[in-house]
Each structure stands twice: as C-alpha cells, then as structure tokens.
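Task: sequence in, structure out. Protein: Threonine aldolase.
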Amino acid sequence: MIDLRSDTVTKPSEEMRKAMYEGEVGDDVYGEDPTVRKLEERIAENLGKEDALFVPSGTQSNQIAVLTATSPSQEVILEASSHLFYYEGGAMSALANVQPRTLVGKRGVLDLEEVERAIRPDDIHFPKTGLICIENTHNKSGGSLVPLENMKQTYELAQRHNIPVHLDGARLFNAAVSANLEAKTFAQYADSISICFSKGLGAPVGSALVGDKSFIDEARVWRKRLGGGMRQAGVLAAAALIALEENTSRLVDDHKHAKMLADGLRNISNITIDNEVDTNMVIASVQDENMTSNELLSLLKERDVLGVPVSPEAIRLTTHLHIQENDIKQTIQAFEDIFT
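Result:
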C-alpha cells in the first residue's frame, strides 16, 4: 500500500528502535532524563534559542505556548485556516480562555496591513491582543512556505506593539529545506516555536516547544498541569534525536517526490493541482461532476494508494521518508487507470 495520507504514518527505523532500547533514561518530571535533556538542548541550539521542552504532541506544544504567553480574555491573531485554529478542537478558548482573531491569508501568509489593523487599541471595550501566531509551513494551504521576509516584518510589527509571536513550526524543517536556509534563520523571528519530530522527520512520537529560559520554565509548569509530564521519556527522545540528526537533510527528497507527483497529475484529464508545491504536499481536485473526493479515494484505495479528502472535490497527497520514486510512478499510473 502506498500511504500518502500524511507524513505522520511513518514507522521508526531500526536505528531508532535500537536507540530507544539502549538510550539512557531517568525521571524527566524530576529533570533527570539525560536523553530528554540532550534532545532539548540540541533542538534549542538548532533554533538559536535558550531552552526547549519535550512534549507528547504538537497540539500540546502549541497550547502550552498560548497558555504561557497570554492571559485570560486576551485575543490571539492567527490565520483563518491555521492548525491552531482549525485542527486543535478550540483548545485555546477551552484551556487558555482567550479568543481567536482570524485573518484570511494568501497561501497561509498573513497580510501585514491586516495584522496591524487587527491589533486592538487600548480601549476598555476591546480584548487585549496577547499573541500573534504564524504557521510555517502552512498545512491547510498544501505545505506552503511562509516567506522569511513576511515573518521578519510580522515579528518587527509585533515588537513595536510589545506582542509576542509564536511559530507553529511543526514542519519548520520542511520550510528551511525548501528555502535553502537554516531553521534558526526562521526561528529568530518568533519568541516561541513548536517543532514536531513525528512528521517529516520520522520519529514515532514527540514535539518540542522552544524559547528563552524563563518562557520554558513557565511552560514546564503548564505541561505538568496538562498531564504532559512523562517519566522515563528518554525512550521517546532517543528516536527524536535520531530523527533530528539523520532525517533533516533528506526532506529534499520528499519535496522532489511531491513535485514529481504534481507534474505527473497535471497531465491527467479531470485532475487539477490546487497548490504551489513548495514542500511535501499535493492538493489535487477532481474536475468531474460525477465524482467526489471520497469516491476518488475509494478508487485509489482499490489500486493500493491512500490519500485524505480536504474538500468535496479535493484530496491531499503527502510524501514522506517511506515514499520512493517508484511509488510516485505507481500513484500516477493509478490516476491514469481511473481517468482513461
């Protein structure tokens, strides 16, 4: 089966499994797990920040960032289809008691003038703007890259208004590889960053929240409150370390395969490609009024290809470390079989 549903479907390599078995562990809630600490130090160094916190998931990392940066009744500015708003169950309102102020971006990129207009003036009738969030790469826009200059200008605007910036960088290393830049080059324009080890990097589980030491000290308290404290978590951090050290540079292969897939599908009647393929995602729409995205996915599954629906007409196909060039060719052939 060629599984293109997500880059989260990968399984740990033998090297990861060996590291998980052999890794030195301790009680991380007491700060005594050396493998967790090594991972936190490594990712903080990679992003040019002082400290980091290992957490179970990207959603928890994002929500801890919101909880740490804001106060109840404040407002958070973010893109209307961002993961923080769209895919985290309304958690910022449920947990942090803050309200989202959504702005419709272009390919996930916020317009600076709209952001400035959305920042609340000092008026007793309005909530205070407590945080601005950026997602890079932007999942709902098909893994699109938020340009470095846009991040820089957003951060400078936020600084002028004394508002912190959080970067949902679940796939930040995809962004860095796509832009041919170091991840820390993007991270310099955020006060906190969420990084996922279990997407393109291929670890089985885990994310990190990265920031300055005082921020991470407070974030550690929130992790405990949310039940995210893990004991001998080095068995997980060991795999994440391998992912970080071994699988960052190879993301270029995923991007190459996604572009190859998009190029092949563009030649098939009744299929259009909806996104500019910056990284590892392809959004393909069916131009056939007699076929829905779910019907297309059923036909693809019969041909050993899996994807996910993103609308009644469109599906998403995501490349990852288990996908090779031959898989891309077989996927294109499956589409050709359906539409010829």
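The radius of gyration is 20 Å.
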